[in-house]
Amino acid sequence: MSETLSRVPIIDGWFTDDIDAPTLIGAKCSQCGTFVFPPRSSDCPNPNCDSITLDPTPLSRFGRIWSYTENCYAPPLPYVAAEPYEPYALAAVELAAEGLVVLGRVATGVRAVDLKVGMEMQLELDVSHRDADHEYMVYVWAPATPGSEAAQ
Amino acid sequence: MSETLSRVPIIDGWFTDDIDAPTLIGAKCSQCGTFVFPPRSSDCPNPNCDSITLDPTPLSRFGRIWSYTENCYAPPLPYVAAEPYEPYALAAVELAAEGLVVLGRVATGVRAVDLKVGMEMQLELDVSHRDADHEYMVYVWAPATPGSEAAQ
Amino acid sequence: MSNDRDIAILGVGMHPWGKWGHDFTEYGMVAARAALADAQVQWKDIQYVAGADTIRNGYPGFVAGATFAQKLGWNGARVSSSYAACASGAMALDSARAQILAGFCDVALVIGADTTPKGFFAPVGGGDRKHDPDWQRFHVLGATNPVYFALFARRRMDMYGATAEDFAQVKVKNSRHGLNNPNARFRKENVIADVLNSPIVSDPLRLLDICATSDGAAAMVVCSMDFARKHLGNTDGLCRVKAVGTVAPTYPQSVLELPDIASDSTAVVPAPARKWKDTIAFAAYEQAGIGPEDIDLAEVYDLSTALELDWYEHIGLCAEGEAEGLLRSGVTTIGGRVPVNASGGLACFGEAIPAQAISQVCELVWQLRGQATGRQVEGARVGITANQGLFGHGSSVIVAR
Amino acid sequence: MSNDRDIAILGVGMHPWGKWGHDFTEYGMVAARAALADAQVQWKDIQYVAGADTIRNGYPGFVAGATFAQKLGWNGARVSSSYAACASGAMALDSARAQILAGFCDVALVIGADTTPKGFFAPVGGGDRKHDPDWQRFHVLGATNPVYFALFARRRMDMYGATAEDFAQVKVKNSRHGLNNPNARFRKENVIADVLNSPIVSDPLRLLDICATSDGAAAMVVCSMDFARKHLGNTDGLCRVKAVGTVAPTYPQSVLELPDIASDSTAVVPAPARKWKDTIAFAAYEQAGIGPEDIDLAEVYDLSTALELDWYEHIGLCAEGEAEGLLRSGVTTIGGRVPVNASGGLACFGEAIPAQAISQVCELVWQLRGQATGRQVEGARVGITANQGLFGHGSSVIVAR
Ligand SMILES: [Zn+2]
Ligand SMILES: [Zn+2]
């Protein structure tokens, strides 16, 4: 990581900046208890619930792969691809407690061939891309560290 | 006019490049005889006519003002405005033979205060704008020259 | 008034018009919840969502019906997303009405919301769209929307002797009408001099003659008469949609209309006796089995002050060329025989494209129910809306109770 | 088969799919004129134009109904313009059907056409659209459309043992089906090795597993059974629309669908027993009063080879996890019990978004009439289409004669 670049999230409010144990920030309905990701502050998605207030809540750091893929070619803008382009994997991970499946990039260096449906994953942060002044951070899924909550 | 700039129409195929007596190029249905502007080569707009072929045809150079206005502020892109901006008039002119009302810019220097519904106008060419290599020509309506076809 | 083509309006709601700069869906949620609460219908019971699209807010705007259904929480309701420029809200209502009358649903949410950019509307889509008349009119002519409004205004002046003061008087009237409307954006009384001292934008129209672009939202809950009867016990005093005229032109469209560069030719087929904008309200009158003389109030599309005068004639309140006289006589002011734009109109609201045809109907409902505090048209029983969207989308809705 | 909710399909037509680079309206005109000629209905007699929108062709694309009506020549027909992403054509058909069954028109033109850019679809609208899920998925994740197709493909592999050869076999089958289809863009027979030797785009999907984006157009003339009877003397052997299912999800949408970044939560309301894509065809079956066992052929939405397999299960041709077996058994190949994508499918056509749900219905009509030269499903009497548009637009149409 460069020392002169200020580190900013690629998008505001979706994850914490705790580099060691980051979490996604979801929203929870104070009335019916359902979860939402990406987070929002209003409009519970449960049609049986008329709550208009949702509160920010950290989501589980651990989950299991629902499915996964790998981008062999650079996606178009507004994705900012490094030059030269390096293929990277994406995984949709099921969070048991929240009943959510969340799509994310997979940590650099972990490729599709390393993944399997059902595999335990944990949330980490990684650098998405850099510009003259900033280092843009993004949440990624990585194979769970042995001994972690999910891997037990 | 600059001698080094190549003169091109602002849009292809809408008018002839005869600087002295330009005409709009409309389309005429070979089957029912109706006219269309802007020109197109297919699809007669008369719903009672199933012709799919339209032929290019010159439109009358002369007509009478149906209505008019003046742009006191610069229109947004893709209009290319000169700097500093100079207000200009627009007129919708009725062509008797074709039964068409055609909207156009009014010749530079002729302002709304100079116009009136019913006034006789004739088609001319004017410079719309320039870039490094081109001078873009546009059709304009100008008060008809005394003694012209329309002014009789 | 009752017939077998009626549907009921159970509830209406808006997000106040303004320039808030938020995501358009936020406004839509407020309007939807207001309409549902007004209808005393729960979201989970809505069976169909007819969204009016916005084309300046990315993908969610193109699928407005789905966007609002998802944000309210997928409830299994079917969705549609309609676009007809400024008439989009009427097309969405028309969609809901057809679904109800065809028996495919009983109760529907009709909704539109927008966030607008500043300044002139420019063509959407970017690049050199040489086939797109909307691109052509800007590039070749610089023909903004106010250019077209101005052509109609100037014609009134040269043909019928309309004056700048007449146009200003429309603004004065509407600014007074909207003064106490909680959903209006501009709530300031204007006098003639305010208008005449504002800068000319497209001659002869001045800044205060032309409506602004706004953020806003409007929604309504509509249903079959059977559903209304079950829901309320009876249908007494309920506002009914008597007609939805969505009227496209008939060749030759002999009047130059936004965004066309030329009219259709009258060389082979003569201009129709009743021109397109004169057919819009009359299609609705015919559906409802009434005429202009039965109307207690009208909400018309005052993109400019002068266009409101055109609409007096198009909807049959007076003959061609007589609108200025009607205005001066006070007939179209609240207290007169047929108040026009009692809401304050676009003069007080500004354009929020997918919402505005719906908002016109909302105003009729509040008026017909006697809930239009501070702008009430006393004893109103029948109202009409009239509106026009680019590319030949005429709309007119008649509501009665 | 007959009931009082039927409408008739009098005529169908297409512009061949390809990559021609022309204005989309040119394709639409060709398809419209072909459908009108097939129906032996004159344009001037059409009362309603239901356009399916394209969002990548500027203003004319947003008001497709009006654009086509104007280009054919304003005939006084009312217009609608619908958008539901890939399901837009079905939404347009649904609009026409509701208008007909509500009695607002007798005969309608349903039409969609597109010109597409090269490469991946990217979000529309430009700028940093931070509120737009379509922008978010590209910017934050690089989640192109094939990413989502690939998630479903990989799941089939890891859960049900699907192989790359199975996926390739779908392409091989469809390439043979479309070989003689005059409207198909790709008319080249592929073998397994062609697919397996093509580069991986989104693992495990290869270039030949994924459908291209195309230019194309499709149109149909639909009408009330009364109109058909007057027009033809009788309705014997006429193709009828028995059902149009336009189905949005019910919360929780527990399967991650394009373009969402997360599923709905199942923490409070459990996932529905029948998931959303399993409800789409079944909504149509219910309307038509039939079941999967009554179907003679199906046109389903093979955005990828693997997704065609998913659809076998969604439309009830087999149980979950059994699609590969069904494919291998030859049931879904022409000559089998229920040929799927006898047209060649998107594999041979590519995506032309507003046209494709309509083109699926066109194929059913040609098949049911016995006019599908070179790809005929012998004795076909009942067919179904299935399709899905971004943001929760499911569509399924059943046609029978
Ligand atoms: Zn809740
Ligand atoms: Zn003709």
Question: How would you explain this protein's 3D organization?
Answer:
The complex is a heterotetramer, with two copies of chain A (152 residues) and two copies of chain C (401 residues). Chain A has a domain at 60-152. Chain A is 0% helix and 41% strand. Chain A has strands spanning 6-9, 25-29, 35-36, 54-58, 62-71, 88-95, 100-106, 120-130, 134-143. The radius of gyration of chain C is 20 Å and the shape is globular. Chain C has 14 helices and eleven strands. The chains are: A mainly beta (152), C alpha/beta (401). Chains in contact: A-C, A-D, B-C, B-D, C-D. Chains C and D meet through helix 2, helix 3, strand 3, helix 4 and helix 5 of C and helix 2, helix 3, strand 3, helix 4 and helix 5 of D. Strand 5 (62-71) of chain A pairs antiparallel with strand 5 of chain D, so a sheet runs across the interface. The complex binds zinc ion (2 copies). Residues 29, 31-32, 34, 44, 46, 49, 51 of chain B line the site of one zinc ion. One zinc ion binds next to loops of chain B.
What order do the helices and strands come in, and which of them pair?
The complex is a heterotetramer, with two copies of chain A (152 residues) and two copies of chain C (401 residues).
Chain A: E1 6-9, E2 25-29, E3 35-36, E4 54-58, E5 62-71, E6 88-95, E7 100-106, E8 120-130, E9 134-143
Parallel strand pairs in A: 1-9, 7-9
Antiparallel strand pairs in A: 2-3, 2-4, 5-6, 5-8, 6-7, 8-9
Chain C: E1 7-18, H1 24-39, E2 48-52, H2 58-62, H3 64-72, E3 78-82, H4 88-101, E4 107-114, H5 133-141, H6 145-160, H7 164-177, H8 192-196, E5 200-203, E6 205-206, E7 215-223, H9 225-232, E8 239-247, H10 276-288, E9 297-299, H11 305-314, H12 323-329, H13 345-349, H14 353-369, E10 382-389, E11 393-400
Parallel strand pairs in C: 2-3, 2-4, 9-10
Antiparallel strand pairs in C: 1-7, 1-8, 4-7, 5-6, 8-11, 10-11
One zinc ion binds next to loops of chain B.
